[in-house]
TrEMBL record:
It is a multi-pass membrane protein. One of its GO terms (cellular component) is plasma membrane. It comes from Pocillopora meandrina. The lineage of its organism: Eukaryota, Metazoa, Cnidaria, Anthozoa, Hexacorallia. This is G-protein coupled receptors family 1 profile domain-containing protein. Residues 50-315 form the G-protein coupled receptors family 1 profile domain. Belongs to the G-protein coupled receptor 1 family. The chain crosses the membrane at residues 39-59, 71-92, 124-141, 153-172, 202-228, 258-282. It holds the Pfam family 7tm_1. InterPro entries: GPCR_Rhodpsn (IPR000276), GPCR_Rhodpsn_7TM (IPR017452). Keywords: G-protein coupled receptor, Membrane, Receptor, Transducer, Transmembrane, Transmembrane helix. GO terms for molecular function: G protein-coupled receptor activity. Coiled coil: none annotated.
Amino acid sequence: MNAINASLRNSSLENMTNAQIVCPVTGDGTVSKAVLTTAYCIMLILSLVGNTLIILIVYRNPRMWTASNFLIVNMAASDLLLPFFAVPRMIVEVLVGRERWLIDGTAGLILCKLAYFFQDVSNAVSVQSLIAITADRFYAVMFPLKANAMKSYIRFVIPAIWLTAFGLHAPYLQVFKLCLVEDKLYCCQRWPKTTSLHSKFIYFYLILLLVFGVPLITIIILYVFIVYKLFRRKFPLGAGNSMTQTQRNRRAKQNKNILKLSVTIVVIFFLCFSPLLVLAILRTTGSISQCNIEVFRIVAKLFAQSNCAVNSFVYYVFNTQFRRGFISYLKAIVCCLDESDDGTNTTVGYSTTGQKISLLSQKRTKQNLSITETISE
């Protein structure tokens, strides 16, 4: 999370000596570096594929254009920032050294600022999206006859989420700079000299409170009300309630399934970031040295950033529509690969008759349509 990452860098680069700044990341073990690098590469691929498919599945199926799914797409879009800005930087850190930076000049400075900025913006957007998803579920359960009302506000909610994340982390664009230590280049924080240590900690704890504390408490409270309502709900019969028993049962089952998915996403998110939070608190209190827990620091960061890859596959496991869409896209990819292999042997036939081209085009069109139809079932 942004507050956690900021705290780690405040306590590591701002006041570190030259000896401290070059603490080994994972010792000199080649095996440990290979394992971590492989883990980050797998995470990068899974995040790119999984989150891209989430966006495509919802985009291709208008029946999935609900408030919750739009917020899930918003989370997927924010998670896509990490493979571009966070994971490559962590791979460099594992292989070369902690906080090391390989690109100098103006391009290096811009990338240094954007890497940390978008990494923590991504985390903030995910947390705020979780709050919005929880609020949507709360509204759907408490006011079932107006379950789709949230959809009309989603066009304002999503931009507000991003603008809030940008505003909270705007100082990153100022304080992150390239630092040269013992002829080695680092991307580190350099606050203005007029900024006191007290002010830095106020900023850190404010971010921690707004991005971790308040959202967690809010989500827990809302889910307590949701669970209570779901398991004690009684649908009154009469003219004021036009829903049939079948419709009520279907709505209740749908709400419980979505609740299960939402709770799982929230629990996984906070579990992934808990080690990094503990590490941040220990370091900001000065109760632990910088170089004695490097392995734990790397593992904590690995857990936190793995969330971007885990989220999308949670949707595939718990949501039938996402799962069908994922399987349909895989089948379409396999079919396209098979057709491309066949096409290398029949190119002449296509150019002479034109019939095979038409048949192949029709087949691909049907496959594209089947993806949307399969998801919508």
